[in-house]
User: Fold this.
Amino acid sequence: MDAVTRLLQGSIDLHIHPSPSLFPRRLDAVEAAEQAAQAGMRAIVIKSHHHTTAPELVPLKSHDLKNIPVQVFGGVALNSYVGGLNPYIVDMTLRLGGKIVWFPTISSENHIKHHQAQPHMKFPSQVGRELPDIPVKVLDEKGELLPEARTILELIAEADAILSSGHVSVPEALALLRGAKEAGVRKMLINHPDFVIDASEDDVKEFVRLGAYIEHSMCMYHPESTFHFWNFDRLKHWIELVGPERTLLGSDLGQKNNPLPVEGLRYTVEKLLDIGIKEQEIEFMIRKNSEALLGLEEAAERRLPAKKGA
Assistant:
């Protein structure tokens, strides 16, 4: 078994975009799970910009996913399609086993402005007619978190779920992280800080200081991706900035004209090894940190065999 294959064993991808979706997709949740299982992965999280993915997994786990040896989790992105900052959809998602709440992505004011100003970044467009972009705001006119945002943070804390800042601006992300700490949220995540969010190095350091993990999207590092392409020296720099112990690698793949999620992770691991990233550092970024966020680390400890004579 080569190093890349070995490292993928037990790995976790917190960022897969399957169908159904209003964006063109290449695979569905069952196919994503089957491909992850073939690679020996432990778990995946499926994400939609338009709906909560937790309910769709409930029947799938009793049927199509039943015999696939990969754990599949869902979550909800708080865009206009679910009512924005809607505590009710968050409550339902978490009670049905959802693990991540992404604050606004495509409906964030930051994303809308970024997409209009920089079309070369190649974010996908919806299939068919699109409704007008109405920003979902997180802060009030004074720069304070809206009451709905605080309620949602409390729900995340109660469920011990993961808060992601989505595609909001740096000031909004900082306000969310600080509010999350006040609410007792233990698991926080910033997605692709250099894409849409446009965070500086100092911003990213502050995110980490406040307790967040930093996830980088592998769809930006594969030469066959239709998205913006960056070289691996850039990724290495981001990893060194905060350390592998605070870095995650998510595929952020599933789009119609992009590589498959497992292909993206496999390619990334191979290239990181080529540029000198150590195997144990990669383990943190594709397995250990995600285990901690999903609570699978504790579950693994509970499954340890009892000592002889115990």
Q: What stands out?
A: The domain at 3-302 is CATH 3.20.20.140 (TIM Barrel). The radius of gyration is 18 Å. The longest helix spans residues 279-294. The beta strands are 12-16, 43-46, 71-73, 75-77, 100-102, 162-164, 187-191, 212-217, 247-250.
